[in-house]
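# nightly structure sweep
# worker-07 picked up a monomer target from the shared queue
# config: single-sequence mode, recycle default, output format = structure tokens
# input follows
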Amino acid sequence: MKIQLINPNTSVAMTDKIAQSALTVALPTSDILARCPEHGPESIECALDETIASAALLDLIADGEKKGVDAHIIACFGDPALDAAREIAQAPVIGIAGAAFQIASLVSHRFGVVTTLSRTVPTAHHLLQRYGYDHLCTGVRATDIPVLALESVHTSLYEQLRQECRQALSQDGAEAIVLGCAGMSDLAAELSQDLQVPVIDGVTAAVKLTESLYSLQLNTAKCGHYGAPIGKAFHGRYQHWSQ
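# output follows
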């Protein structure tokens, strides 16, 4: 199967890093097509970043549909533009936050989320409520590590992340940890070994979910909420969306 893995920010280095994480768990029959937009923010750390990145993300979703990919993964923990992406896609579209919460709920009674900047904590809480996992979450902790700092992880940064995970386990009562950034994807296995608990990365979780949906021959429902967008004229830089 062909899985389009989209990093919605413009960092090529982070896109390559995320792709490597995906390849570690993908089946030999899965082809990972990792992409990022040419236009938009270099990292997504606030509502403005997410809103501007969403337009370029949707262009990549539409292009992937034309190329016949079998699934799309939105590799940003905010799951930006997820509903809009599902409106324009026949293939399944999986956000990494939703994927991580789902997998964490299968291997623990309650889990904690450890993310990047403090200002993104409300977004994580919103997603937990949206997906119906807020009652299973012991809390959301921020490391205050900028997203782009995760392109190359040094010892002190790793220790900063591990310390927040330890506190989620010892102080909050978490039994598993969800990593709240795609840029942390390559750290999940090492953290799991260090902490001796399940540590879930949304990128790899999403890869396995898309492969499962492909095996089950399930695509996005195209009636109701995820029906095709209402045809109308778009103007200016968005004229290509006119129907």
